[in-house]
Design goal:
The chain is of the alpha+beta class and about 120 residues long. It has a single domain, classed as Nucleoside Triphosphate Pyrophosphohydrolase (Alpha-Beta Complex). It contains two helices and five strands. A three-stranded antiparallel β-sheet has the order 2-1-5, with helices on one face. Strands 3-4 form a two-stranded antiparallel sheet. The longest helix has 13 residues. The N and C termini lie close together (about 5 Å). It holds the Pfam family NUDIX.
């Protein structure tokens, strides 16, 4: 099983599609410190980082800035275990749910994360 958050449309991916919690790494912050901060903020609990899954390119045909028609993210995915089993999503996530294959309405980028987890022997 894997956990997914359904986006409320504040950020990419589009509203209603499955996504993973995430965000920006602040200046002077390590990527691992950002994982802990984002987990606390978006999931309401800290996490144990099990491993780094990899870095992924995300290309979108939309942007938040006038005069810019697209954006390009470099996202580093981590495999984590929540410290507390009770997750409390913040307001940018409509819900948190677990699922198994076939994946329901997941953004292709999220599906890639899950396929890479499977290739490493993780079961969901």
């Amino acid at each position: 099983m894997a956990a997914s958050s359904s986006a409320n449309g504040r950020t990419n991916p589009p509203k209603g599609s499955g996504s993973a919690p995430g965000g920006t790494v602040f200046k002077g912050e390590t990527r691992r410190d950002a994982v802990h901060r984002v987990a606390e903020s978006e999931l309401g609990t800290d996490v144990v980082i099990d491993e780094e899954l990899g870095t992924y390119e995300h290309l979108y045909d939309t942007a938040e800035f006038d005069g810019v028609d697209s954006k390009h993210y470099l996202a580093t995915a981590f495999v984590v275990t929540p410290v507390d089993e009770r997750l409390e999503p913040d307001d940018q996530h409509a819900l948190l749910e677990t699922f198994t294959e076939p994946f329901p309405d997941l953004h292709p980028y999220m599906e890639r994360y899950l396929r890479d987890l499977e290739a490493r022997g993780y079961q969901y």
